[in-house]
Amino acid sequence: MNSPRYDFFAEVLLDKPQAVLLRHGERELTRGRFFEQSIRLLNHLVQMGARHGDRIVISLENRPEYLELVAALALGGMTACPVDPAISQAQLEKTREQVKASLTITSYDQLAYSLSDAVPDCVAQGGLDAPFLVVFSSGTTGAPKGIVQSVGNFFRAAAAFAAAVGMREGESTLHNWPMFYNAGLFNLFACPLMSGGSVVVGKRFAARDIGDFWQTLAERRPSYVYLSPTMASSVAKTSRFFKPDLTALQQARVITTSSILYPAIKDEFKRILGADLSPCFGITELGGSFTIGGPDAGAFSVGQVMPGVTVSIDAAADGELLVSTPFMALGYLVDGELKEPFDREQVFRTGDLGHLEGKELFISGRKKDSIKKGGELINLSEIEDLVHAADLCEECYAVGRPDLFWGETYDVFFIAPQGGSAEEVKAELLRLFNQALPQTQRPDRIEAVNSIPRTSSGKPIKRLISYQGVTAPQAGQ
Questions:
Q1: Strands (DSSP E) along 367-435, which ranges?
Q2: pLDDT tens track for 264-281
Q3: Cα–Cα distance for residue pair 154/286, rounded to 1 Å
Q4: Which of 156, 174, 245, 443 could be cross-linked to 222 through a Cys-Cys bond (beta carbons 3.0 to 4.6 Å apart)?
Q5: Does the pLDDT of residue 178 top 70, yes or no?
Q6: CATH classification for the domain delimited by 374-464, as one of 3.40.630.30, 1.20.1270.360, 3.30.300.30, 3.30.360.10
Q7: How far apart are CA 337 and CA 437, in angstroms?
């Protein structure tokens, strides 16, 4: 069969078919078996009526079969549209309409392995530039967008990033992120897949189940562990309750992604757990992660840019990061059609603010996380790090908003420590800002909140942070 997709995955998976790809509990799945079961699963989908070019909405909890399903759709030229299984029925229906889905899979009972291991005809239709995945952006600063990835660019970007990290054949990666999230498919599946490694499918990370995280680490001792900064902070702060054996964590390479790694969180993690955090940085529209740093990376550094990707800084746009990459996604899905294709000949304006020092890239936040107060640029990420370093509260976020006098200003929202007094924390924060910041850089208001709205990956949704029962003003409105 002349099929670029079949040949691509056969080369990746069948070069060493007896090597283990997935581990889940006592179960092990070799690369050869994974490939065979993906073909059988694809045959079952074809029997259900799925065809080349169809979009399939996936609303499932983490299981090894999820990754087989993604591989089956990639082989069949179908587009996976993963969503959070916790969304409401109304949200699910809206997503189905948005992508014009041909099939929605909401239960593993809908899946089965066909008795036939013959390669279906749809595998030979289309090439590696065909759509393969629609990833919905986090929506932290606006409505989520459907970002369309191609098979070739997604997996080639994963191979390039794995090489930049130094991932080697036989090394294992702990998978404890949502599989519908881009990092859950790119960093925790595609990277070990392309580098000859294996995936330990663990329980999805949750603050209430951190004991499971420590148990999996001790039992499986993975080579690579990914944590968002929020996860890293939770692991460090709660470790005293579990008294874990820290050697498994200290011997692994712990990489942070998803949001800015504040220096205070990095230092706290090292001080309490004796383990280093390596920052990385990526953008879904650009294929995934494209920088990797070491434990000695400076404050707000995301490391060095991987080969094949070039970056520059637009000083005229307050230091916006511009990126050129061969791994760019196809574009945005609008009303079920690819109406906003990306021009791969043009640099991509990321909306992130940064600067270069030699080969090292530093990211200080989103453009929307920076404000101009009376003409003076204030980076809200640096304000947040100031508070984190003082260790006065559980969490703290600075949120910009328009102001008639200053043009823009910002408010600070915080969660008081358990058992602590919100009024006392507020007084301490006020004292901190008065001592550390000139008057023009201080927040307009400081308010306590009970909780922080988050995306499924734990990233704070700043536009939804509210006062006690009163929605916070949003920048640009």
A1: 370-373, 376-379, 395-403, 407-415
A2: 889 999 999 999 999 999
A3: 9
A4: 174
A5: yes
A6: 3.30.300.30
A7: 48
Question: Start-end ranges of CATH 3.40.50.12780 in the chain?
Answer: 4-365
Partner residues linked to 289 by β-bridges: 282
Q: Specify the DSSP class assigned to residue 189.
A: I
Tell me the C-alpha distance between 321 and 309, whole Å. Answer: 13
**Token pair for 58:** 């996936």
CA atoms of 300 and 31, how far apart (whole Å):
38
Q: Model-level pTM?
A: 0.83
pLDDT for the residue 473: 37
| Amino acid 370: pLDDT | 81
Cα(336)–Cα(3) distance, rounded to whole angstroms?
Answer: 27
Do 418 and 394 form a contact (C-beta atoms < 8 A)?
A: yes
Q: Which token pair is 215?
A: 């148990």
CATH fold of 4-365 reads Rossmann fold (3.40.50)
Q: Taken in order 163, 252, 384, 472, is the CA torsion positive or negative?
A: positive
